[in-house]
Design brief:
Length: 202
């Protein structure tokens, strides 16, 4: 879903646009792709996070409980905070990934191979993960909040303020190292595979 939107928006915006606008094109395309992808990602993440704190319940029981007590909006709790986390992440990751690929291509005199794209993806993903960790921490706090609590309202700034007041800077960057490691590995596999698939299809 993400890459279908990303490539379509990119192709529409790239039409007759100057090369210096390429980073802005990648930012807009990635942002719109995140909004669409989150329509699927958020419900699955809500169920997954609830399952992590209630390991005795099955996925189907958790899904049924959410729909019964909170309705469909319960599955989209944290949609806004997830989009507000994912858009800044993509605003950093995708222009950086595309720029690193362009730089590497220019240095070696030909388009990067898929493994080189994967290395660029790992670096871009790790860097983007680090700078957006506070938004991820706030999103998790919102998704795990009890229905009716102040954090359940989905106010990202309020969640960030609460974390800052109670845990400080370390609280805002809780889990930054495993997040960077996981997303770097994911960026390597995901973006490398995507690049290889794109090269085979085009």
């Amino acid at each position: 879903m993400f890459f279908i939107t990303y490539e379509n928006v990119k192709s529409v915006l790239h039409h007759d646009s100057a090369s210096y606008l390429a980073p802005a094109t990648h930012m807009v395309a990635a942002s719109l792709a995140e909004v669409v992808a989150c329509l699927i990602r958020v419900p699955s993440e809500v169920v997954k996070q609830r399952a992590q704190v209630s390991p005795s319940s099955s996925t189907l029981q958790i899904l049924s409980r959410i729909l019964y007590h909170e309705g469909i909006q319960g599955l989209y709790r944290g949609y806004k905070s997830t989009v507000l986390r994912e858009i800044p992440f993509s605003l950093v990751q995708f222009p950086l990934w595309e720029s690193l690929k362009d730089l590497w291509s220019w240095k070696q005199g030909h388009v990067v191979d898929s493994w080189q794209s994967a290395v660029c993806g790992a670096f871009a993903g790790g860097f983007a993960a680090a700078v957006t960790t506070p938004l991820d921490v706030a999103k998790t706090k919102i998704m795990l909040a009890k229905a009716g609590s102040s954090n359940a309202s989905g106010n990202v700034l309020a969640a960030l303020g609460s974390i800052w007041r109670t845990q400080g800077l370390l609280g805002l960057f809780a889990g930054v190292v495993p997040r960077m490691a996981g997303i770097s590995l994911g960026g390597f596999i995901f973006l490398g595979t995507y690049e290889k698939t794109r090269q085979l299809l085009l």
